[in-house]
Amino acid sequence: MLPLALVSADFSVPYLDRPYLPYRRHSFWYGGLQDRFGLVGVPTLPQIQRVLARDIGGTWARQRGNATPALHMTFAAPQGVGLAALVAGEERLIAAHEDAVQASLDFMRRRLGYRARVGGKTSHVPAAEVLFAIFHRCSLESASPYLHTQVLLFNLCRRSDEAWTALGTGLITRGRAVLELVYRTELARYLDACSIPARWDTEAFDIVSIDENIRARFAGRKWTPESTTSESNRSVAPLEKERGRTPAGKAKRVPTGYAFLRQQWLQAWPEAEGFAVGEVETGNMVAEPTAQDIVVGVLNALGPEAQGMKHQQLLRHALVANRGMVAAEAVDRQIAEHLARDLRARGNEKCFDVLAE
Q1: What is the mean pLDDT of residues 96-109?
Q2: pLDDT over 60 (residue 160)
Q3: How far, CA to CA in Å, does 172 sit from each of 113, 187, 261?
Q4: 233 CB contacts (<8 Å, ≥6 apart)?
Q5: Which is nearest to 315 in space by CA: 293, 328, 299, 304?
Q6: Which of 75, 248, 263, 309 lies 20 to 30 Å from 95 when distance is taken between CA atoms?
């Protein structure tokens, strides 16, 4: 499930100043509100702290007491995608990851809003503009090359009367599994277009071109980041060293950063010198199934088991079955609508449509 954390006003952003592996794109602001605040370029810590402190001018209208200033999310690429992208140098996979993250954020943005009294009852009102700070990262913080994106969603928006208020973030906290499935669905769609074989089931998703021995070799390594002071190192990974001692008791030095990863990759799998996970193929496209086709197929495949499942469980099966074959807009709403309609027809009045809230 998508990692999600609450962010306080004194939140520090340690990854803002860390060096990165190659292929990093600039971090950026997104959502529309950045123009109101004059936020341009790469997000900086002073800018982020200013927004967290709600130093935005005007009157801050609180919602449900002291609202959390922001939410922090991490979109992490599967291990095999990270290995192939950062070690084998498959830059297409980095672009695929970033495009999938963007699709998930677009999906989220269209559903964010605030609670307001409309016609005598409390309703969810879509927010015209929100604010994200997005950090695309390639690092060695885990035991294997780690391709991921850190996202801060600031908990504020403007009401129709131009007053500031907090977002209704319950949709995000309840729908984390759906957001991650949107990310993986979009990633799978890109991999399919590039003819990169992937393994997908209800528990895991990854490319299949990476030998399990290689995965285990990287996963078993221990990393000790060292500080970097040279400005020339700002675009590459932190210096790394393997934990080990020579007979004389001195620390054993090994190649650092990207060169070290590449060396370990080649030692584990010499054939990786010419490694490629697939070429883009065209001309073999088939007709896309409709959202209704997917829902009907899932319900038929599950049979009686579907009767006892909650709507979110069935939606998970539908999105997994989709495997990126249907365009993003269809994934957004049509699958959910067809599924909700089918469940209501079966007499399940308690189904909760997290996508259409």
Answers
A1: 86
A2: yes
A3: 11, 20, 36
A4: 19, 239
A5: 299
A6: 263
